[in-house]
Please model this.
Amino acid sequence: MMNERTLVLIKPETVQRGYIGEIITIFERAGLKIVAAKFLVATKKQLDGHFHGGDEWLRGIGRKTTEGCREDGLRVEDVMGTSDPLEIGRKIKEQLYHYLSSGPMMALVLEGIHAVKVVRKITGHTIPAKAETGTIRAMYSIASADLASVVGSPARNVIHASSSVDEAKIEIRHWFKDSEVIEWKKIDEDVLFTDGDYTKISDKKGN
Ligand code: ADP
Model:
């Protein structure tokens, strides 16, 4: 669907560094609309719900990490202590819980045309050192996968953004009640998108 919603978490290190405003400005400037926002310290229960993918998701993280090590000329067993993708995924998950509950985060729901894909594009590669120039992860961090492994932490990569429309639906429902997501019309939508007829897109909301 064309007009979508997606979830962004401004991660603890970014809040600590005082960049909430700059990150929000980047998304607003691109034409995305904030439809929900909250400041929170994530509980274990909330993180359990966020990382809902089970063993398949853990294996995926493990495989991505193995691939990343190969690209960097490293042996994943030297970096993670094992080459089993599930075991690697479990270790990273444990580290992620520690990292993401280490201080307050800002959770946002952003709405806009192809919001999921557009926000991921603006966010950039999972590992900031590999992120494309101009993306948020490249502009606000130089963290690398080998650094992460040396300090025993996941890559601190500034923000989280939903990776697909289906994931966005689940994540928005997880972090926000329906009543906390506000339907509203932004003054620039007419000139940017619809020539004054917002109904052209409002009934095409994918989530
Ligand atoms: P993304 O956040 O880009 O969607 P994933 O969902 O695959 O990436 O991973 C979740 C989080 O785990 C990442 O945001 C990052 O903090 C951490 N992470 C993922 N892969 C690695 C890796 N190879 N090394 C260190 N940390 C990683």
